[in-house]
Amino acid sequence: MTMTDTPRLDEAALEQFVHQAVGDLAAAISGLMVHLGDRLGLYRALAGAGRLTPSALAARTGTQERYVQEWLANQAAGGFVGYHPEDGTFELSAEHALVLADETSPVFLGGAFETIASCFTDHDAFVRAFSTGEGIGWGDHDDRLYTGALRLFRPGYEANLVSSWLPALDGVVEKLQGGASVVDVGCGLGASTIIMARAFEHSSFVGYDIHGPSIDAARASAIEVGVERRTRFEVAPALDFPGTGFDLACMFDCLHDMGDPVGAARRVRESLADDGTLLLVEPAAGERLEDNLNPVSRLYYGLSTVICTPSSRAQEVGLGLGAQAGPRRLEDVLNQAGFSHVRVATRTPFNLIIEARP
Bridge-partner residues for 37, per DSSP? Predict the structure, then answer.
């Protein structure tokens, strides 16, 4: 074969991949449809309502029937809602409602679709970053990234943090029950901090984040749920936040976003009491790329490409750890920061929960 020869194609493989790509195209536009359904309250109106016509759903949500009819057709074609041709009605099952309509459900994914929608808005910034190698600061994204991330992570924290993640750490729950000092580094809108503050009324909590609007929202949330007297939120970087003698330090889904994760972990190490503990929650991942060729890692690698890695590269050092670092790489970061005892305490399909001690 010469260099100008056309390689012989495997027609079956080509056809299979075309079908796969078309499936992804359908998923991409349907992701926007899910975001619209979430934002317009369409799923919430369908939940528990039984069979509804497009007209009835439009009336319940203050939307226009013709648009709702087309949206429902997309949802039925994707299997998100059921369609009953005998009477032209649509229905959201109880199982699907947990994923699409119930923000208290541990499997609610509306926030994930909101997060991804924000990424499409930031498309031009990502093109520039690829071309120049520059970073994109956490505060420089479409605002839906912050609310989407809150709604994405909060259900998992609500379901697992107090009931299983903290109990998996040696002696930490007993300290919290007796009255401990806790710092939540990279707290975002404060969901994790507030969940702990609600559960442990004798402990005190402080959350730090570099994003001022998130801190403002966290303060408002603390007041709303009545934990403001034992919870404080301040703007501060992970490399230089104030305070020492903490019994527990937490970093939830944020270490990989930091430009200098070793330096941030070292500052956390310095802030701990001699018998203190770091709770590190990171996205679930295996050690090697070949361990991560699955739908969850596909999602995380995509988000890491446009959110986590650019965030890191916008900061000092700009290591770009990535959202799929895996337990061995994370252990190495923590060891470099001065933690001598590091172990995976527990895990979920979406999270690694790591305990680190000095």
Answer: none
Do 182 and 225 fall within a single domain? yes
- Quick one: CA dihedral 152, 155, 158, 161, positive or negative? negative
**Structural contact between residues 146 and 213, judged by C-beta atoms closer than 8 angstroms:** yes
Bridge partners, residue 181, by sequence? 204
Give me the residues paired with residue 250 across strands: 184, 279
In a shared domain, residues 93 and 117: no
Taking alpha carbons only, the member of 189, 38, 26, 188 closest to residue 110 is 38
CATH code, domain with 322: 3.40.50.150
Residue 6 lies in a domain: no
Range of the domain at 353: 113-357
- Model confidence over 27-86: pLDDT tens digits? 999 999 999 999 999 999 999 999 999 999 999 999 999 999 999 999 999 999 999 999
- β-bridge pairing 341-347 and 246-252: unpaired
Report the number of distinct structural domains present in the chain: 2
Please indicate, yes or no, if residue 106 is contained in any of the structural domains. Answer: no
Q: What's the CATH code of the domain at 36?
A: 1.10.10.10
Instruction: Look up residue 67 and give its two tokens.
Output: 């648009």
